Structure formats: structure tokens, C-alpha cells
Amino acid sequence: MPRPGFVLEVDRATPPTLFWHGESFRLERLPRGSRILYPPEPLNPIGDVRGAIDHALDNPVGDVQPLSSLLNPNMKLTIAFDDVSLPLPPMAAPDIRSLVIEAVLERAAQAGVTDVVLIAALALHRRMTESELRHALGNRVYNAMAPRGQLTQHDAEDKANMTVVGETDRGELVELNRRAVESDLLVYVNINLVSMDGGHKSVATGLASYDSIKFHHNVATMVHSRSFMDRHNSELHSSNWRMGHVIKDAGVKIFQIETTLNTATFPDSFRFLSKREWEWNLRDRGSFIATSEALKRTPPHLARQIFQSIRSPYGVTGVCAGEVEAVHEVTLERVYQQQLVRVDGQSDILTLGLPFIGPYNVNSIMNPILVYCLGLGYLFNMYRNKPLVRKGGVVILSHPNRPEFDPAFHPSYVDFFEQVLTETTDPLVIESKYEESFARDPWYIHLYRTANAYHGVHPFYMWYWGAHALDHLGGVIILGGDPKATRRLGFQSASTMADALEMARSIVGPDPSITHLHSPPLVMADVY
Amino acid sequence: MLESALSGKTLFVTGATGFLGTALVETVLRALPETNLVLLIRPGRNVTAEARADKDLFRNNCFDRLRDQLGAENFKALIARRVRICPGDVGTDGLGLDAEGQRLLSDADVVIHSAATVSFDAMFDQAVEINLLGPTRVMRAYQAARENHLNASHFVSVSTAYVAGSRKGDAPELSLSVQPHYPEIPWLQEVNAARAQRTSTEASSREPSTLAELRSLATAELGAAGVALLSEKVERLRADWVKDQMVAKGRARAQSLGWPDAYAMTKALGERLLESERGDIPLSIVRPSIIESALRDPYPGWIRGFRMAEPIIISFARGLLKDFPGVPEGIVDVIPVDLVVGAILAAAAHPPETIKYYHAASGSQNPLKYRQLVSLIRRYFSDNPLYDDIGQAIAIPEWTYPARGQVESTLRRSKRIVDTSVKLISKLPLRSNFTEYQDQLAETQQGLERAGSYVELYGAYAECEAIYLADNLMELAGALDDRDRETISIDPHLINWESFVLETHLPSVVEHARARTRPKSSAPKRTSREDRLRASLLTGHRLAAFDLENTILAANVVDSFSWLATASVDGGHKLAIAASLLAEAPQLLALDSRDRSDFLRYFYRRYRGAELAELERRAPEFLTGYLLRKSFPLGLARVRAHRQAGHYTVCITGALSFAVAPLSPLFDEMLALNMTADTNGRLTGEVPGALPIGEARGDLLRKLAQTHGYEFAETIAYADSTSDLPMLEAAGTAVAVNPDTKLRQLARRRGWLIEEWSRARGYGNIFLPIGRTL
Hints:
Chain A: InterPro entries: LarA-like, LarA-like_C, LarA-like_N. The structure holds two protein chains of two kinds. By secondary structure, chain A is an alpha/beta fold.
């Protein structure tokens, strides 16, 4: 029976705490009385995943027929699936998407459906590479679909293949992938790693255009998404839900499949990363020392390659299919069951160790803008009710924050860092002054469409992702961060935890309360 | 007295646009209201003599005083009334005068010949033509013009005190012929010898061995810059070589006869010739010593041009010249320019019976000791130091007055070390990392070159221990009345050396040298020169041409071949291809540095048989996995900034079109090489037509500018290597991107913007990239 997550209060006997630090780790001793939020242990996975998939497809929730009865030989069937940004790190083969899609394709084949197209639901993310597609879909699906042109990737800038579905009552434009909208059935295959994923957001964002996405990917929406991990208090989701209703009313038939994973994030060789420090045995200590000593001697780009090759031994905890909203409620329960931990009261300081990976640097570099987004966007928002840190409090992020960029995947990030952040870090100013020119830039659009680059506007969304945190916090310190790159982000860097806490004290007062979010593995705080 | 003596007279002046001539014209206009001037001025290639007079003479700040007194209009009117410009050339027999010129010369009451080549490193034959033959040429023209004239004539010739030679002891104001130790040499032989030496030197500069040497020098400096630029450079080097040879031959001949250099020697022979050819025209010869800035008129410190002592003083203040030969007890004979002008005008007012000599020199009357001068200079620069590039005050060295040979050998030694380092470094394939060190080295190299040439040129003068007697001069000074003294000075006793050096001369020299006299402002800088240049690039109507390899991308044809070749094969073969390229690398590099076209053609043969469709299918992966990861983000941003500014952007590259096609949307136009394919869609390995390399690249840029309606001045070229020089030179604005050592030096010399663009940090260096499925 896996143990639930819990909050440890640091005392004299507490060993140093493991902090993620990009492609390395730090051991830090937190002051006595600090709280450490440990994630629950991985839930027991489903033994027979294929059986669970079959069951879900045949027994959909909500007002929907089983999948098989929705299929007929003359129909147009489109299967959209989550892209490379999920899950993190990538899942050890077989990827759950490949199992689900195989099951869907089998049923389609039985029903004699010939017009089947797969779409990677990229939204404005980069196109997936061949090996990433092969990994997500499995070689069988890839080899069957790709050579015949039945495997496509969503292209939000291909205006000929986009169509306007309608507008919400708030005037939000819904413009989606034409093939998906004009299909007789759209099956969407999700991996719901965190509570933000899935629901109406899958189609309304994943298959939309910039002109549509900009109605919820903006500063005003993000500041009012508290948090965007809590769908019922998230303006981001409200907007997507409104769009979802427009899509439904327009007669687009969606068969939503959502899957949940447990938090078995690290392979056996990195087992110590999932354990609580005082429970480390001799082997864990040994592998920690060996790993961190080896990393010290490894050039950063090699260390990155090593970490990026990690495949997580996730277990599947649930598969649910059917009508979008009904499916999503089931999914949310399962995600919360795995990740939610009750915490009493906010603290003055929140410390976060940032790992080597976030949604947008799979097989790539975590550049400073992604560091910002991972810390103040994703991890800061891993809460329900109230943030872990009080209004005006301080967040300390641990990451090297080197000014390193991937010019192939993140070309507009480089320019955003050099041209925009040198002028201002204010999300509202950035949005009004620079967004349009990056979003419409023909070179970025060329790279987004033909190479593997994130859309020109993507770094702006990263910046908006942290807008709620920027609005809420009194200061941000990057522990061990490159001073120049950190200043560029508008933050301060500290070389030791003692310095970082000292700097934080000058903002929050002399005797601060401190909470550390010990993640990953993922944990979500339910703060009362 | 002086005013009335020259009243109503017309002075015919040669050399009016020189330092001394300018002051002379100004003084006549200001102090002698009833005296008129005819100025012999050589028309330029594209300017008339009148225009030259206006530009090179009357616009000089020498006339500021008059212009301020009279107002600009009245000043113009004054010139129109009193000054006639006579086109002509002292280098031509008969001075090249037209009828009007003849008339003007015949009306001249006094001819003042002050035209000379004063540079101490003039070529021997040139010095002979101007300094030796010039005075007599003017004299003969004067005689011819005056044939039927009844009025008294007078010829004043400006010579130099150094005609006395490198002698010790007194030098009297007498004809050289009556001075002891004067070498009696027939002038005509020297003239013929100099002319013959010019012919033979010109000939030997064209010997194959000399040309080969010059060619290798040019190649060392420019690299594979293409035929046109190299031949231009070789021709320039040849001309310089001839000049150096002629200067050296002149100096050798002069020193063999006891003169410090060809200048003094040709002046001396010129005097002798003039004496014998003057006929019955009274002749005054004024011999000034080292002419320096004005004591009082037109204003204290006025100086024109960078003269003899100034570069030495500035080099000293900049700490470049650590020592200078000289005798501390010796006399430095310096004379302010207005005192020389005074002497000339006073001499002009006193025509002698036959010939009279005047030393416009301070040495015998009011001597300035070398040690005193040095200590005054030291004092001045201790109180008013110059500042170096980073704003530190420069400490001035202590001079030890060594012998010349010692200084020269020290300088030679340091220069040899620096030269060797520079040569070594330019052979290494270095980029940005070492650049700062390179820059320093190049600067030191130039400084040492300069210091060495000063010692060579002026060392002999500093060692000169002759004392120029000035009895005749003092006589002239005595003849001035009080009214004259208000406007004209002659007497060297007027000089207070301390205040002259500290308050008049040095401030003027420093101002003239545009040396940094204030520490840099420590206020935070908003924009640097580079920033301003950068900003100016992005304005206006422009055509921007970019080289690709090492300018926009850290890629090259070998790399991209390696990627493309390995992308389509599996494991073991990938390594085999990469290994064979590695093994061949030195040979490829050598070929590339010799001739880029040959290299490319040779290398591109490897693509023979490759399937074009397969290469094109690889394009997206090639873009992500290779081109973009090798790109310089700042370079890409610059191209895009140009486009945003509405400029026309072109990429000119020697790469193959299919290898760079994914990048073409970045530019308005991409000019790459097209390899032909056979009917089966397989590449032939052949590229038809001339490659856009070297001169072709410059021509291409010119054509592009024409086609798209841009002036040459509106074009900008970005490139990284000397093989792109023709394109950089052809463009209105050149930007050197990550330049190699040679290009860096050239770019710095020409004031081009230098950009250091690098790959985004984060990926390791890929030496030979191996293509793979992403």
C-alpha cells in the first residue's frame, strides 16, 4: 500500500534535503522548523492496461455510445493525440498513447473505416521528430500510417486547413484544424500527467490557431487562473470550456480518451530521487554520490544528453473514455488521488528545486525563459485553494540558469531574451508591445511549419504563464543561477542557500516560515 | 620702414600653400597693406589653381584673425584686390606659365621662392627635381620674364640651415662655397645619377624575384582574396618598394657627403646652382632651422600640418618612444614660423648688391639646449598627461640620451619579436578568442614601426651640433622700426623658451595631434562607437549582402557534406565517411587557403551520383539538426532586422543550393551554386559557370545593387574572411563578422564595424557532424 504524501517539519535530526538543480543536485540543510512537502508514493498501477483500454472504449462515460458503434466504413475518422510535451520525462515504451491508438485503430479496421488520419495536437508547439513520433505511437502505428500520409502534425499557420467553428458568448474566436472539425468523429487521446491537462482544453487549444489561442493565452487570463492546475478556479480553463461548448454546439463529435499515470518517475538507477532522504539505504547513498560526482566532471551538454535519455517507468492508473466533461471529472479525481497533499497555512518563503526537464525542452535545452516558466508557471501553480507562499512572499528556485538556448527548437526564445527582456520584464508591456510582431514573424512561422521550432509567440506564453506568480510574489531568487541571465529575467541570484535566505529575509522579514516543495516526482499542494 | 619699403611692390610667391607660405601670405595681407601678391599655385588634377588657393590656403585657420577683423565679405574683397593666382608648377621648366602668368611674373618686384619638398623622406630624384633644380628653374623664368624690364629685381630663396651639413662648430651666413669642408661636387652629375637611379630602381622593382617576394607579402596579408585585389596590392607594394629604395639611396648619397639626408643635400646643391645661375639679379637666401609653431602671429601656437618635432613629441608622450638619440648639451635649433616670415620679408625689403645669406635660427642668439627641451616636454606631459584607450594617464619614459645605433638596435629587436608573433598568429586558424591579444599586438607593431622611422629620419638632426651664426639676421632685426615690430618679429631673443614650449608650442602640438588629453568620462556610457555604427546600418535605403559560412552559420561545405552523406547511411558507414574526411582535413584546408574556387570544385565532385530528391527530402532535418544548431542567433537577428527596416537582403554563398535551401526564406534572395543533375535525378558533381568567389563576389554585389536600384554607397556587406575582401571593398559599408587575423587587422585599419557572433551556448562543438534521423 503506497504511502500518501506528507509534510515534514525539519528538526535537528533531519538530513540535508535533496534539491534538483537542472542536470544536477544540491543537498541543502533547511533551517529548523521549515516544512518539506513530500509527494505521495506511486499508486499501484493497473495490471492489464490493454484490458482497461478495451473496457473504457466499450463502456464510455457520459451520454456517448461505445466507440465501436460510432464507427462505419464511409466515415471520416480523425485521431488526435498529445504531443511530445507529455509525459515528463518521456514514458518507457510502450507509450500509453500507442496502446490506446492501436486499440482505436483495431476497432476502426473492424468497422471497415478507411479514411483515418492521425494528428499530433501541437497547438503552437514544435513539430515532433520522427523518432519522437515513433516513440509516442509505436513502430507499428507509425509504419502503418506515416508512409501513406495518414500521420500528420497540426499546423496552426496553414490557414487553408484551418476553419472557424464559431465564437463564444464572450467573443472568443474558435478556429480549429479543418480535418478534425470536418471529421465524422474526432477521437482525442490524452495523457493527463497533471490536473491542467485534458478536458475541453485538448481540442480547443491543441488543434487551434494563434488567433484562437490568444483569447486565453494572455496575461489577464493567466493572472486570474488561481491556479491553472485547479480547473474550477482557472480562467484559462473557463475560456477553454466556453470554446468546448461552441465546438460541441457546432456538431463536432468528440470521443475523449484520458489516461492517468502514477508517479513512478525514475528508473531503478535513479531510485534515490523518489525516496525520502532519511530512508536512503547504502545503495541509494552510493548511487547519489556516484551520480553527483560524475555529473560534476561532465560537460553540461553531455549531462543533458544523459538526463534526456531517461525513460520513466510510469504505471497507468486509469483509462477513461466518453464525453469530454464526464471523462475529465473522473480523470481529475485520479490525478488528485495520486498527487494531492493537504498543507495547513501558507509560508513566507517557498523553495523549489527545478529539474532538467519541463514540457518544452524534451530532447533539448532548458533555457532561462523555460526555467522561469517551470518555476513560476508550473511548480508555483501546483496548488489548490491558496498558493504555498503568501502574498508578497519569496520564491527561491534552484537551477544553474545558464544562458543556453537551442536555436533549432527555440529560435524565437533567443530573440525574446536578447530583444524583449533587455527592455522590460513586465508581462503586460511585453504583451502589448512585442507579442504581435513575434507571432506574425514570417521567419518564425517558416521554422514552425517546416522545421521543429516552437511558434514565434511561444516564449510570450511562457512569460504569461508566470504572470500570476509575478503578481503574487514579493521577490524571486535563483539559487546557483548565472547572475547575468538571472538579472535579465528580473531576478536576483544567490550562490548559497544561506545567502538566498538572507536576501529573502530582507523582503519578508527576519524570521520567515519556509516550505520546500520536494518535487519531482509530482506533488500538488491543497493549501488551507 | 618695412611697410614703406615694400609699399606698392608686388611679391611673386611660390609654395604659398605650405606651412611657411601660408604664414607669409597672411603676414603680407595683414601687415603690409600696400603690397600685392602673386601666388604660383599648381592646379590639381581636378581643381583649378584658384580653387586650390581657396581651399588649401585661405580657409586655413591662419586667416581667422584677419577674417574676424574684417568680416568674411571684406576679407574676400581684400583677397580679390591684392592677390592674383597664377597657375604653374615649379617642377616644370618655364614653370608652365601662360601668357598671363608671364605678365604677372614680369611685373613682380620680388620673387620669394619657398616651394620645397620638406619631407625628410622624399625620394632622391624628387628631392633633386624640386630642391636642387627648382630654385634655378624659378630664377630662369624670372630672368626671361624680366628681360625688358627696367625696375629693380630681387630674388629671395628659402633654403635651410642644415645645408651646412652634419658639422660641428660655427656655420656662418656665407655661401657654401667659401665654407670649410664643403664638398665640391658637380651638381649635374648628381642630377643625372638620381634620374638614372630612378630608372634602374623602377626596372629592378619589376624583376621576377622582387615581384615574387612582393606577391608573397601580399598573400600573407590578404590571403586568398582573389586576383584583382592581390594584383592591386602587389602594385601598391611595388610602388612603396621603389619609394623606400629611392629614399634610402638618397640618404646614403647624402650621408656619404656629410649631410644628414637628401633634403639638406639637395637644398645645398640648389643654393650653389642658384648662385651661379642668378645672372645680375640680387639674391637673398634665407636659411631657417627647424620651423615650429608661431610665437605671436597670426596667433601664438599656430601651426600647419604635422611637422618634424611633433610626431616625436607625441610618440614620447604616448610612451611609444622610450628613448631618443641626441646630445643633451647640444642645441636644438628651433625657430617659430612668424620669425622666419619676418626674416624673409625684411630680406625682401633689403635687396643686396649681389648675394646675401640669412640664418633664421635661434642657436647662436638664444639657444635651446636639448636637455632643457626634453625636461620642458617632460614637465608639460607630467602636468598634462595623455590618456590611453582605456582612460589611464600615460606615464612618460625617462630619456637616457643614448647613441643612435643603440636605440635603433633596441627598436629593431622588439620589432622583430612582435613581427614574428604577428606572423605566427596569422598563420593559426584563430577566431574571436585571441582577438584582443591580436589587436594589442597589431597596435604595438604599428607603434614600433613609427618609432623606428622617427629615429631613422630625425636622429641625425638631433645629433647635429652646428651653431648657425645669425649676424645678418640681427642686422635685419635692427632695421625694424617700432611700427614694424607691432606686426613683424625677427629677433630670436624675443623667445622665452620656457613659456614658448610650455604655453604655446606643446598645447598646439597636442591639439593638432588630436591626442586624448582628458581621462575618459567615467559617466556610464549609453552608446559606443560600435553601437552607433550598428544603429546607422539599420537606417535608410539599403541593400545588405551576407556571406553565409562563418558569418551566419558556423558551418562549412565539408561539414554539411559530412552531415548529408552520413544521414542516408547506417552506423559503420557513417563513421567511415567521417573518418575519411578527417584524414583528408589538412589537405583540404591547404587547398582552401590557396584558392577557394579550386577547393570547392574539387570537393563538390564528391556529390556525384547522389540522389537530389533524397537530399531534398532531408532538408527539414538538415535545418533542425544542422543549420539552425550551427547558426549565430545574432546573425539571424541582424538579417531579420535589415528586412524589418525594409532593406533588401541577399545571401551570397559558395554552398550548394540544396544544402542551404531551408535557409532561403531568411533572405529576400539567396545566391547559391546549382549543381547539375542527370536525367535520373542524380547529381553530376559539376557546377557550371564561374563560382561567386573573390572578385566575382564583388561584381555580383555591384550587379545586385544596379538591378535593385541601390547606389554603391547604400550597400552593406557582411563577411568573415579575406577571401571575401572584394565584396567587402565593393560595398558602401563593410562589416567583418568573426574575422580571421588578417581580416581583423584590415578591418581595424579601415574602421569597419567588427561583429563577434557566436553559436548559441548549450550544444557542444560538433567537429564533423554526423547526420541522423531526429
